[in-house]
Amino acid sequence: MFTSNPFAELSASVPPAFMQGFVIVMIVLVAAGTLFDVLHKGSARYFFDHWRRSKGRSRRPVGGGELAAIAVKTAVVDVLASGEFCNPRRRVAHLLGMYGFVLHVLATVVLVFDLSAASPWPQLWWLGGLMVLAGGYWFWFFIRVDVSAEGHSPFRVVKADLFILSMLAAVTLGLVWAAAGGGAGLLFGLYLLATTVLFGSVPWSKFAHMFFKPAAAFEKRVSRADGTNENLPTLTRDDPEQQQRHSMELLRDAPMDMGLGIKREAPRHY
Length: 270
Hints:
By secondary structure, the protein is mainly α. 63% of the residues lie in helices and 0% in strands.
């Protein structure tokens, strides 16, 4: 089961051209959905307008070498290591889902377009899928804020859950279909349906965020480097100048450790 190409066995009843055409359609849906999302929400225009305004307010120039270093740091820390997550459990779950999804999709493309593909691609297909299930179900049942902090039922579903639920459904059905022996049947039909929902719902789900978030992380690091800091205060509360800017006079002379009782509990709820 872990060494054979499930799509090769499927080719006995489904033409390979159909499977390859389906993969191409899914790629087109992702590209078209992302483009529609950018145009409909104005994400690209907002990003470049914000970048232009930030450059006009910059307090120090950022050279090409420093920009390159910031880009590398963004790629390594924010993208590859998901450095935005302070919660270690959420970061591990996210990394499992992210790398598992990329590996599973890549292996799917290879196995569909090369039915003779041997080791390690079938094993990578299974490994990527199992990583998605481990990270996704762990997040869904134990890490989500509205479940772990607010006490809502883990079966409560809102529109924002479309991406993760369709991803879990597609990968789960794919692995169950392969474990059941493959072939064209009900499981295969459900697998195709869940995959279509996953890649066809890009304009309405969080799928496109994987393309936007690296750019936002890079812009955030540049704003810190040039001094604009997204118009946020750069001074800490223990700085005399920052203390005088506090809107409540009572808190201007408050001790620095005031209110830190919240740190007695581990930061799990975000």
